Amino acid sequence: MASVASPVIFKEFCPLYYLLNAIPTKIQKGFRSIVVYLTALDTNGEYIAVGSSIGMLYLYCRQLNQMKKYNFEGKCESITFVKLLSCFDDLVAVGTASGRVAVFQLVSSLPGRNKQLRRFDVAGIHKSSITALAWSPNGMKLFSGDDKGKIVYSALDLDQGICNSSLVLEEPSSIVQLDYNQKVLLVSTLQRTLLFYTEEKSVNQVGTQPRK
Asked: Which Pfam families does this chain map to (predicted)?
């Protein structure tokens, strides 16, 4: 019996003007007018997260049709990577050009969910631009990579408000991609791809030849 082909769904792609219009194109800082560039993007079913060159994270809630803003205290620097996660709570991790990493635990109107915005900072292990972030499915682990090849593991206890971070791997070239599942971290750098087994602290390279 011939299999039935799945129906083809046509979608129209267009600029998200409702989102872009909620983000300023310029800001005034003293006597200077600074152009705002959009530097990072991530999406899921609940949110659209946009990082900017002025250190501001713009978070658009799809259900409520609302835009909220989050930033780092102190130095205004470009956001280089954002990563959303929806588990029991909604989380967003943000990395910057100087190596700062922060996690925002978002407020939810649902019963039993988080009612107060909280922020967790990854203590200054990274010293250069963040190039990749990866969550564990339950939101208790965050991995961050930078353009000097450092990979940091952060263990989050959302109930206690604790974030403990440590350097777990250091590669000779920039990290370009991270993905985590079932105690295995997939790491891609400019030179190679490898599997890092977090329990055994062992590395298994994918392929034998370095990238050109």
From this structure: WD40
118 within some domain = yes
Asked if 93 and 154 count as a contact pair (C-beta separation under 8 A), the reply is: no
Distance CA 66, CA 63 (A): 8
Specify the 3-state DSSP secondary structure of 19.
helix
What is the span of the domain harbouring residue 169? 17-23+34-177
Q: How far apart are CA 189 and CA 139, in angstroms?
A: 24
Q: Could you tell me if 83 and 90 are in contact, meaning their C-beta atoms sit under 8 angstroms apart? A: no
DSSP string over 95-131: EETTS-EEEEE----STTS--S-EEEEE-S---S-EE
Q: Mean pLDDT per segment of 10 residues, for the chain of length 212 residues?
A: 70 83 90 93 94 94 90 82 91 95 83 74 90 95 97 91 92 96 95 94 84 67
Rounded to whole angstroms, the Cα distance separating 49 from 70 reads: 10
